[in-house]
């Protein structure tokens, strides 16, 4: 349940309707509150507001009508700018980067400010009498409407500045890498000198080939596994005295009917166990960063690979992505990956997750770059320099072996480069990687 709530909050955070709708409802309540406040308290004595009470019913209607018209017109401008930014982001950086733009709360807040201003003035207009004989003019509502109009103007100016900065490639790359590093920094720190990746072991669970006493749980729908509620699976395993092995990790795609999990133990009610497993797994049509460690890595790789395409041919953006990937992998090198085995209170293994591994994450970071930079000396050299910098750190054994493997593949591809000096530079950087590893072995 907790994972589903977190996923719902993430969906609301990346939606364009939730915050503007919430602010619009608050605007309606503000109209009612301001009208009630003005009837209960005499605001004529407030300093600096004498000019406000010179406005009659026609003037109040004119002011509110002008603010409402301006607000809805400016909201259209904000919406149009957002659509242009989304289109540019999708075409230049990839459609998967749209989610990052939609999660920008300043964009939602700007749109919500204009919508709230329009709704407030629209409802305030309904409270303005036709003449002074029909009732008092809501001067406080007029004053608030003027304030909201000024606030909306300021938001429009800052929003344009925000968009100009956001659509720049270095800013997009920095936002994605910051999200990735925040996720990696939440992992437990690796002890100095620790060479074994505990996440690669599944002690206490039979191997996949051992099918004795195993009941497979097939996936009921196709889609990406977005999140897993481990606490729910632990409770299920403990209640029924079972051991559960999940065969997919967040970010992987499941086909309908594919084995999602294996249940070790006797099942009295297989259907109810299957229902509980599916309740603990959140599926969707796309990958998300909620629990998917490789999602942000793939986003950075996508931006870099697109920059290397013949249609764009922008090696500087690709190198920027490589630099940020290197910074994130440096964080990963000092962290332990999440344990794949989850025990009950007595220390008995109950749930086995499909693990993330150092080699798998390095494959995600380097494979596509290597495949697309065969003829680009600058990108190849920068990849090796990042590997050299990583090699000089205290690394787990599997991290070190995988890093050397990727450096060797890049070194083997140096024959694709046209000029001999470029091939010599690649060979020199590869030797630097090997030397750095030898010093910190």
Write out the strand line-up for the largest beta sheet, numbering strands in chain order.
1-5-3-8-7
Share of helix among residues? Answer: 55-70%
Total number of strands: 8
| Strand coverage percent | 5-15%
**What does the average pLDDT come to?**
87
Question: What series of H and E elements makes up the topology?
Answer: HHHHHHHEEHEEEHEHHEEHHHH
Summed up, the helix count is 15
Major beta sheet summary: 5 strands, mixed
Low-confidence stretches: none
> In angstroms, what separates the terminal alpha carbons?
45 Å
Structural class: alpha+beta
Rg from alpha-carbon coordinates: 29 Å
What sort of overall outline do the alpha carbons produce when their principal axes are compared? globular
Structure overview:
The chain has 441 residues and is an alpha+beta fold. It has 15 helices and 8 strands. It has helices at 2-13, 18-40, 57-93, 98-102, 105-126, 139-166, 169-185, 230-240, 270-279, 295-307, 315-333, 358-372, 377-391, 397-412, 420-439; strands at 214-218, 223-228, 243-246, 253-254, 259-264, 281-284, 341-343, 349-352. Strand 7 and strand 8 (349-352) form a beta hairpin. The protein is globular. The two termini are 45 Å apart.
């Amino acid at each position: 349940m907790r994972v589903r709530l977190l996923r719902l909050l993430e969906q609301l955070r990346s939606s364009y309707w939730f915050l503007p709708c919430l602010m619009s409802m608050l605007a309606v309540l503000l109209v009612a509150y301001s009208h009630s406040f003005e009837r209960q308290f005499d605001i004529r004595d407030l300093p600096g507001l004498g000019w406000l009470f010179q406005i009659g019913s026609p003037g109040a209607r004119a002011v509110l009508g002008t603010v409402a018209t301006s607000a809805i017109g400016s909201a259209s401008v904000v919406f149009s700018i957002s659509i242009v930014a989304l289109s540019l982001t999708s075409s230049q950086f990839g459609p998967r980067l749209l989610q990052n733009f939609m999660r920008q709360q300043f964009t939602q807040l700007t749109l919500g400010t204009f919508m709230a201003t329009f709704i407030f003035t629209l409802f305030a207009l309904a409270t303005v009498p036709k003449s002074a004989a029909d009732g008092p003019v809501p001067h406080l509502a007029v004053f608030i409407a003027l304030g909201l109009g000024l606030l909306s103007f300021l938001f429009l100016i800052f929003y344009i500045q925000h968009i100009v900065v956001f659509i720049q490639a270095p800013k997009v790359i920095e936002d994605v890498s910051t999200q990735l590093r925040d996720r990696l920094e939440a992992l437990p720190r690796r002890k100095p000198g620790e060479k074994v990746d505990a996440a690669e072991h599944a002690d206490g669970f039979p191997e996949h080939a051992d099918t004795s006493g195993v009941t497979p749980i097939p996936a009921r729908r196709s889609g990406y596994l977005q999140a897993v509620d481990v606490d729910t699976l632990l409770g299920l395993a403990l209640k029924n005295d079972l051991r559960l092995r999940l065969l997919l990790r967040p970010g992987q795609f499941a086909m309908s009917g594919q084995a999602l999990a294996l249940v070790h133990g006797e099942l009295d009610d297989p259907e109810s166990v299957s229902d509980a497993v599916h309740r603990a797994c959140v599926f969707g049509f796309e990958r998300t960063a909620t629990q998917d460690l490789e999602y942000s890595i793939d986003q950075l790789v996508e931006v870099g690979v697109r920059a290397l395409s013949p249609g764009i041919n922008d090696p500087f953006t690709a190198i920027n992505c490589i630099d940020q990937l290197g910074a994130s992998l440096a964080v990963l090198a000092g962290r332990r990956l999440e344990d794949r085995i989850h025990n009950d209170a007595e220390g008995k293994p109950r749930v086995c997750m499909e693990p993330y591994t150092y080699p798998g994450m390095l494959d995600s970071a380097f494979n596509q770059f290597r495949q697309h930079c065969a003829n680009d000396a600058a990108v190849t050299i920068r990849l090796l320099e990042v590997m050299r910098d990583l090699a000089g750190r205290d690394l787990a054994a599997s991290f070190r072996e995988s890093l050397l493997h990727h450096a060797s593949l890049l070194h083997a591809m140096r024959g694709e480069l046209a000029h001999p000096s470029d091939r010599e530079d690649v060979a020199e950087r590869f030797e630097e990687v090997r030397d750095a590893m030898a010093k910190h072995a």
